[in-house]
Amino acid sequence: MSRTLYLECYSGISGDMTVAALLDLGADQQVLESALKSLPISGFDIAISRVKKAGLDVCDFQVILDHDNHDHDMAYLHGEHHLPHSDGHGHAHDSKTVHHHPHQVKKTHAHDHRCLPDIVGIINQAQITNHAKALAIQIFSIIADAEAKAHGVDRERVDFHEVGAVDSIVDIVAVAVCLDNLDIREVIVPEVYEGRGFVRCQHGTIPIPVPAVTHIAASHQLNLHIISAEGELITPTGAAIVAAIKTSDQLPKQFTIEKTGIGAGKRTYDQPSLLRAMLITDKTQKQDCIYKLETNIDDCGGEILGFVMERLFEAGARDVHYSPVYMKKNRPAYLLNVICTKADITTIEQIIFEETTTIGIRRIQMESTGLKRTVKKIKTSLGEAQVKVCELASGKRIYPEYTSVVELCEKHRLAYQDVYHIIKKECEAAEGIRGVELVELNRFELPLSS
User: Fold this and answer.
1) Are 200 and 230 in contact (CB under 8 A)?
2) Within the chain, which residues score under 50 in pLDDT?
3) What phi and psi, each to the nearest 5 degrees, are found at residue 62?
4) Which of 107, 216, 375, 384 falls between 20 and 30 A from 166, CA-CA?
5) The whole model's pTM is what?
């Protein structure tokens, strides 16, 4: 059964923070290690540990490279005047809980620069599920589009000299594997907090949010919240992860928390660098919301409206009716009313505009209350019939479906109300309904069941 994830990004988001939070949430560490060992790249180890952040015991995921990487070097990122307050990673490791996993016998080298097709090829060779592969490729494609726009080149020619380094490949594949392992399909990210100022990269000093992040936020409608903290809280990888996995930015009005995981960030700012992930269950009272579409039509023939009604029912309308009304200047007209679900609004409105002369439709959202019902097919002495079984506090109520009644009327040349009551009576007997006054139809012999 798929699950719903809520990401609380008050300290921004990055790839390693996301992996750590998902591991803390319960993603299988052995599955992740096997997946990363299958990547056809070399020059990296991973370390999974428990660390202290603001006094909290949280998970840390680190990619250890065999070459210099300034991604977590605060002095490099912000200049010599911005020095880390601790060990450069913003936390102290407990050496007893650190697990190193070397990845040495591989085909390619960590210093290689790669384009998107190269990275897609690497991901496709990994021994991971197709869903995890597709998600990892989607995340990299989002970054490629953003970098292409920032640098003015084609996405296939973007040189992933930074985000395409081995640590980012590992982070992104790890995120995809963990999400797949946890069977997460719905992800809620209401907003992502970002700092301000400037950060150093290979091209020089650039403003925060960095261009790749702004392009991803614009293309995928991420809700950014800029705070006063100096520093880059959202990395391009983190922004791309949110863009790829977010299915909603609205939390349920009421929900319960199944489990919580917290991932540690490496950079040191005035606030703790933490990403909290929660598996949640929506407990909001579900209401059946329906929509009424209505329009006044004073220059459309009755035969057209009859045809429109048929098309609207075929398109999913729950109900359709039109009433005679008098419009301005006492013109006789029809008021067309259609009841439908939100999902069918676009299709139904298009039919009304195409088939009638109206140029405007009023749309009204309404709450609906209905009996709990089940549609069943039952065998009767006249043949198979479809019925609605509705549940009341006092018991069940049976409603034979119109189309089934008509079919059996034509088959047996019987009156509508006779067939209706036969179906109702026999269904009530089959459902064990007692205390209901049944109509006895003894005017003719019932044929044997077909």
Assistant:
1) no
2) 74-77, 80-98, 102-111, 162-163, 435-450
3) -130, 135
4) 216
5) 0.61
Q: Which of 187, 224, 310 is nearest to 12 (CA)?
A: 224
pLDDT of residue 31: 97
Q: What is the per-residue DSSP string for 379-398?
A: EETTEEEEEEEEEETTEEEE
Residue pair 274/53 in contact (Cβ under 8 Å)? The answer is yes
* Cα 90 from Cα 83, distance rounded (Å): 11
Spatial distance between the Cα atoms of 338 and 215, rounded to a whole number of angstroms: 41
* pLDDT tens digits for range 218-249: 999 999 999 998 889 999 999 999 999 999 99
Cα–Cα distance, 322 to 244 (Å, whole number): 45
Q: What are phi and psi of 154, to 5 degrees?
A: -70, 145
Torsional sign, CA 256, 20, 131, 218: positive
Between CA 12 and CA 63 the distance in angstroms is: 19
- 10 Å CB burial of residue 83 (0-12, 13-18, 19+) is exposed
Find out whether 142 and 132 touch, Cβ atoms under 8 Å: no
Task: Tell me the DSSP string of 107-149.
Answer: SB-TT----HHHHHHHHHHSSS-HHHHHHHHHHHHHHHHHHHH
